[in-house]
Amino acid sequence: MALTEQNDISIAEIAIYTPALFVAIWLCIRHGFGRSSGWLYLIIFSLARIIGAAMQLATISDPKSLRLRIGAATLQNIGLSPLMMVQLALIGRAAENIQKSTTCFVTEQRIRFIHLIVLVGLVLGAIGGSQSGQDLADTGKYTVSTLSQAGTGLMIAAYILLALSTALVAVQMPYMEAGSKRLVLAVGLSLPFILVRLAYSAESLYGNNPAFNQVSGDINIQLGMSVIMEMIVVAIVESIGMTLPKITKSPAGQSDQSEADYEMIPK
Predict the structure, then answer these.
(1) Rounded to whole angstroms, what are the CA distances from 184 to 69, 83, 89, 93, 139?
(2) Any alpha helices (H) in 172-243, and if so which ranges?
C-alpha cells in the first residue's frame, strides 16, 4: 500500500521529535526538572507528537479504526498547550532574574495565573476531543465540541497575556543577566509561529471551512500552519536552551551563577 501525504508527515514527525525528545531530556537533566519545568513540557510535547504520529501510521494496517484517527487528532489539538507552558516557564524565569535587581510587573503569581488558564484549556480540549470522537463513532460525522471551542478560547486569552508579559519583561532587559536575555529572545522568536498555530486551531474549531477540519481537512494547510510551526518553535527553544549555562546551587540552596557564566549589566 502506497503511503499517503499524511503518513509521510507522521514519519517526519517521528524522525524529528525523537531526537528533540532526547534533547529535552538532556536539558532537564542539565538544568533540573523542578526549576526548569519548561524543559519538562518539551518532553511532554515531543512524546505527544511521537505517539500521535504512531497512532496515525497504525491506521495503515487498520484504516477503519476510529479510535486511532480520533486519538491522533486529539493529540494534535492539545499539543499547543505544552508549547505555551514552555514559553510561560521561560518568561517566568527571566522575570525572576529581573527581580534580583528591581521590581518586575510580571510576578510569579501572574505567570501561575496564565499557566492555570492554559491548563484549563488543555483539559477542556482533551474532553472536547473525546466527545467529538464519540460523535464520529456514533454518527460517522466529526463535529466540533463546544468544550474544545471553550478550550481554544482560553488558549487565545493565554496567548495575549503571554505576549503582553513578554513585552513587559523585554522592556526591563537592561536589568537582566546575559543568559536570561536569551530566554526572552527564545520566547519572542517563538510567539509569531505560535500565533499561526493558534490561528489554525481557531479556524478549525470556530470556522466552517472544511479545509481546516482536523480529521478530513486539507493536509497542506495542516502542514504549513500547524506541523511546521510547531517544529520551528521546538527548534528555537531547544537551540537557545543548549546555549544556557548550567544553574548551580549555592550552599544556602539558592541558584547561583559564576561571573564567567553571566555578565551582569550595570544598573
Answers:
(1) 37, 15, 11, 9, 47
(2) 178-206, 219-222, 228-241
Indicate the residue type of 41. Answer: Y
As a whole number of angstroms, the distance between CA 132 and CA 210 comes to 16
Question: Which residues, including other chains, have CB under 8 Å from residue 155's CB and lie 6 or more apart?
Answer: 80, 81, 84, 117, 118, 121, 125, 198, 201
pLDDT band at 255 (very low <50, low <70, confident <90, very high): very low
Among candidates 243, 244, 224, 233, which has minimal Cα distance to 187?
Answer: 233
- Closest by alpha carbon to 105, among 169, 187, 188, 175? 169
- Say how far apart CA 63 and CA 147 lie, in whole Å: 28
d(CA 151, CA 78): 9
Cell numbers 506541523: residue = 227
List domains and CATH numbers for the chain: 5-241 (1.20.1070.10)
Least confident of 21-25, 43-47, 65-69, 147-151: 65-69
Task: Give the pLDDT confidence of 158-208 residue by residue, as tens digits.
Answer: 999 999 999 999 998 888 887 788 999 999 999 999 999 999 988 888 887
C-alpha cell of 29?
537533566
State the average pLDDT over residues 6-29: 93
Nearest 5 degrees, angle CA 186-CA 162-CA 77? 90
Most confident of 31-40, 100-109, 189-198: 189-198
